[in-house]
Write a structure and sequence with these properties.
5 helices, 2 strands, mainly alpha, single chain, 171 residues
Amino acid sequence: MERPHGLRVPHGQYYLVDAGYTNGNGFLAPYRGQRYHINIWRQGHLPTSKEEFFNMKHSAARNCIERSFGVLKKRFAILRSPSFYPIRTQCRIVSACCLLHNLIKREMPNDPIEHEYTAWELAHINDVPVDDHIGAVESSNEWTAGRDALAAAMYNQWLANGGGQVEGILP
């Protein structure tokens, strides 16, 4: 954000963001006032609207992203605390950690760090209350319409493919 030209999102792309961000150009936020957290869907609840279905998929995608960062931080201590290196060096550190992580994954299929993180994740799966809903988010009309169209298409495809079955609702 402190770069001379700010944060730039490539045209046609977006960041998947949580409810703390605006659903605006380049930022795709979940629906307000709808069930969201992944543990709700793991308990066998099914989405009953396009908004809940979108939030379920949004939550699952964010969970994968957060898990990836969690595993990287567990493996590489340098990623666990604020860095005072120049931004270019920080980017290189993250890239090097990702490359090393991929090498480790390729050469060691049974990764103890990954197993340890998975055990921690399973132990904390119910840390978010089941009735937790998303709070207020201000949206742009254009991105809200785009999100609505995407949510409707996803939900209709899910229903057409036999949606409503508990198995296979998560990616």
